[in-house]
Write a structure and sequence with these properties.
15 helices, alpha/beta, Rossmann fold, 2 domains, 13 strands, 17% strand
Length: 354
């Protein structure tokens, strides 16, 4: 990476998260003590539908606290091929859905510049490892996005909740650039020496993605209803049993330790509202990425969320009927969407553990 001039960032997967992060970073200038200021220049690898939307409307970003930024269509650097997107890249943010990771890994192996860093800002536990396996010796970091982003209309992306981005700590001193860059864009980022624990904790929270999709409710409205929280508590408690059998200790990403989350979720509504105000500090219109995928007729990541719990349970001899049933229901919804009532789904999930 040169000390002066532009730092080239490639967004590999220009969906909701990719467009939002890329749009926040583009044009930001930052510096680290002892180095010259640098400016981020972002190139988006886009599918045809997204390319059309961005070329027609530009890129509009907003968040639930009032942030707003618009990037004009003619100011966007859009690429149609991996070779074009990766040319000269210093940093690549991989934001594709987990099932696409093997294809992305092969494309990175073919076109990634020698100096480039790669950060996997993807759900699930294994995507960074899959990238590293195909890119031996390259600087590939696992990352975690804690907040929700939804595409409200073509080219318009809204952050509906808060949180600090997390990436792997790395021995290379150049890593100090990335927290400074993201901070300049108003996106706090920290480095963790135990990313597996961070990802395990995020997976616990992401178990709600399936429930939110099945509810067809905004996240805040869903979590405000005790029946839906009890469904999530069942899924999380099951996952925690699997983690214990596997020797996993999830990090603390919420005001309470991960092992306390199911008990907190089961509290009566009034008490939950008092004790979990931060958990409910969500934009009223925010939805999960699984809901967004179902609405768009796309395959979901449920296989890397509920499916991961089921696979780990099988490997360690722990039954996972609740997460297996949710996996099945989302797969059915991919073919024929259906909205559930919280009480009905809770009864169905409880039936699986009798």
């Amino acid at each position: 990476m040169s000390e002066a001039g532009a730092v080239r960032i490639a967004i590999y997967g220009a969906g909701s998260i990719g467009c939002y992060l890329g749009g926040r970073l583009d044009g930001q200038t930052w510096s680290v003590r002892g180095r010259s200021p640098r400016t981020a220049r972002v190139r988006f690898l886009v599918r045809p539908a997204m390319s059309r939307a961005l070329r027609e409307r530009g890129l509009v970003l907003s968040d639930w606290r009032g942030y707003r930024r618009t990037l004009a269509a003619d100011a966007l650097d859009l690429a149609a091929t991996p070779a074009e997107a990766l040319a000269g890249a210093d940093l690549v943010l991989v934001t594709v859905k987990s099932p696409a990771t093997p294809q992305v890994a092969a494309e990175l192996a073919a076109h990634l510049p020698p100096q480039a860093w790669v950060i996997s800002f993807q759900n699930g536990l294994h995507n960074a490892g899959r990238l590293r396996a195909t890119l031996p010796g390259r600087r590939v970091l696992a990352g975690m996005v804690p907040f929700n982003v939804v595409q409200r209309e073509p080219g318009a992306f809204h952050q509906g909740s808060s949180g600090t981005l997390v990436i792997d700590a790395h021995a290379d001193q150049a890593k100090d650039d990335w927290p400074a860059l993201f901070a300049a864009a108003g996106l706090p980022l920290r480095c963790s020496a135990d990313m597996p624990a961070v990802q395990q904790a995020k997976l616990l929270l992401n178990l709600n993605n399936a429930l939110n999709a099945l509810s067809d409710l905004p996240l805040r409205e869903e979590l405000a209803q005790r029946a839906w929280r009890r469904c999530l508590a069942l899924a999380q408690r099951e996952a925690l049993r699997v983690y214990a059998a596997a020797g996993m200790r999830p990090a603390r990403l919420t005001p309470v330790p991960a092992v306390w989350l199911p008990r907190l979720l089961e509290l009566p509504d009034a008490l939950f509202r008092r004790l979990a105000a931060r958990m409910l500090a969500i934009d009223p219109l925010a939805r999960s990425s699984t809901w967004e995928d179902l609405r768009a007729g796309r395959p979901t990541e449920v296989g890397e969320l509920q499916g991961e719990v089921v696979a780990l349970g099988r490997a360690h001899g722990v039954a996972t009927p609740v997460n297996a049933r949710l996996l099945e229901l989302v797969r059915e919804a991919e073919r024929a969407p259906r909205a559930w009532r919280g009480e009905t789904l809770l009864a169905a999930l409880r039936e699986t553990v009798r």
